[in-house]
Amino acid sequence: MNPSPTTPYAALGGEPAVRRLVHRFYDLMEELPEAQDVRRMHPPSLAHARQSLFEFLSGWLGGPPLYVQKRGHPRLRMRHLAFAIGPRERDQWMLCMRLALAEEVADEGLRHALTEALQQLADHMVNVTPAAA
């Protein structure tokens, strides 16, 4: 009998599953008209973004700390200060992530937990507030 996975990384299926999730996330960002604002924040090629998110999620989910090994502490908010991230961009990012999770994570409990944790992370990244109406 195999022991149950002890990390979200293992529960997802390790490297191949995290890569599939990241690729689906960025594919959705390119495909969905509703994600156009967050897509425009990225360069034409998403290759670097795909690799960077994979490395970050690998360690964040309890797998190999690839991002930290290459770049040090993630300091995500600081690294994203150059981008105006408001509620609209956060919500577009989360739309792509929720859809990717729905397609790539079969375990409903794990999917819900990851969605909640990623929502908190996305909320933390907001660095501008919309102008008052």
TrEMBL record:
Entry coiled-coil feature ranges: none
Keyword terms, alphabetized: Heme, Iron, Metal-binding, Transport
Molecular function terms from GO: heme binding; metal ion binding; oxygen binding; oxygen carrier activity
Domain of life: Bacteria
Family: Belongs to the truncated hemoglobin family. Group II subfamily.
Protein name: Hemoglobin GlbO
Organism per entry: Tepidimonas alkaliphilus
Gene, per the UniProt record: glbO
